[in-house]
Structures are given as structure tokens and as C-alpha cells.
Design brief:
The protein is mainly alpha-helical. The chain is built from 3 helices and no strands. Helix 1 crosses helix 2 and helix 2 (18-39) crosses helix 3 (43-58). Helix content is 64%, strand content 0%.
């Protein structure tokens, strides 16, 4: 099974329609290539990070690196 097919299946399991899952998989792979080039990291690491965001986002969680900064105590 190809990489895009595996990602498509993941997207389908997360609730996407088949056509949308294929589009999302292609976008994930393209963005992973972009991130790897921009950040000087491996494509696999970039893709793993994107998949983490996808899965956590679907579950309603915010990955720690995207969490808002703590609010300063206003003294009340």
C-alpha cells in the first residue's frame, strides 16, 4: 500500500469522505515536503508532526506547541 493510500485510510477513519480523504492525504504529503525543506528536518518528522495535529485536532485537543500562552495573573 502506498503512502498516500495509507494517509487516505487514516483520514477516512477520522471521518472524512473518501474523495476528501484523498485530497487531505495529498495536501499532508505536500506540506510535509514544504516543512522539511523550510526547517531542514526530515520529511518523516514533518509528516509525523502534521499527523499529530490532525489526530489531536479531530479529538478536540490542542497539541502543546499550539496551546495559548498562560494568562498573566490579574491580581484578583
Amino acid at each position: 500500500m502506498s503512502e498516500i493510500e495509507q494517509l487516505s485510510q487514516l483520514c477516512e477513519r477520522l471521518g472524512s469522505a473518501r474523495a476528501q480523504a484523498a485530497t487531505m492525504a495529498a495536501q499532508l504529503l505536500k506540506r510535509a515536503d514544504q516543512l522539511a525543506a523550510e526547517r531542514g528536518t526530515t520529511r518523516e518528522a514533518a509528516l509525523a508532526g502534521l499527523i499529530e495535529v490532525l489526530v489531536k485536532g479531530r479529538a478536540g485537543d490542542v497539541p502543546a506547541r499550539f496551546a495559548p500562552p498562560p494568562r498573566p495573573d490579574d491580581g484578583k
